[in-house]
Amino acid sequence: xxxxxxxxxxxxxxxxxxxxxxxxxxxxxxxxxxxxxxxxxxxxxxxxxxxxxxxxxxxxxxxxxxxxxxxxxxxxxxxxxxxxxxxxxxxxxxxxxxxxxxxxxxxxxxxxxxxxxxxxxxxxxxxxxxxxxxxxxxxxxxxxxxxxxxxxxxxxxxxxxxxxxxxxxxxxxxxxxxxxxxxxxxxxxxxxxxxxxxxxxxxxxxxxxxxxxxxxxxxxxxxxxxxxxxxxxxxxxxxxxxxxxxxxxxxxxx
Length: 254
Known about the structure:
Layout: E1 7-9, E2 23-26, H1 45-53, E3 60-63, H2 71-75, H3 88-106, E4 116-121, H4 123-132, E5 141-145, H5 151-162, E6 169-175, H6 184-208, E7 216-221, H7 228-243
Helix pairs in contact: 1-7
């Protein structure tokens, strides 16, 4: 069974116009808007979208809460020896076949893939990148924050190598202090090992044909940890990159 609330944040101008808007689908929905429901701090998505609207950047944000104990399986796109077979393909199908049609029906969206984004962190970042490269290629914008590159023995690397070059924009980031340790030196060593894997993912995307600045933005935040406050800090930059230039396309479809 798949029963969960879907959270929708509408742009400030939504009720005053008949415009249609891009849509960003975000995972771990309980962490996006409310400190009371979050795991370790909220992302302040609503406040961020209001601030971006003053820059002419507006979008509908759809938050999909995770299923608690099923989170690793749901966001895991590959079989993992320690975490089971992975049901990420089913989760992406749920987004594409159930959630997106409902949102497109109930709200004034721009339904084309070039106006449709998916964004998440950690395992949410991993499943976002998987969804971007997964048929039917419903998402033309993807935000990949601190992705769990380790999952399923780093199967994401081969997946990206073998996937076709999908048109769109990719935002990828990582902090330089994402891992803890018994000592400061141990934490630094583990963190370096981790962000090296994200750098490798960036190089794979460049080799594939994604151009830095134009359709690929990569960010390393010094001293940033693996938690919601760090992702909240980087979210405005991610959304600016993904949504910039779409404003002139916002209107009433003919």
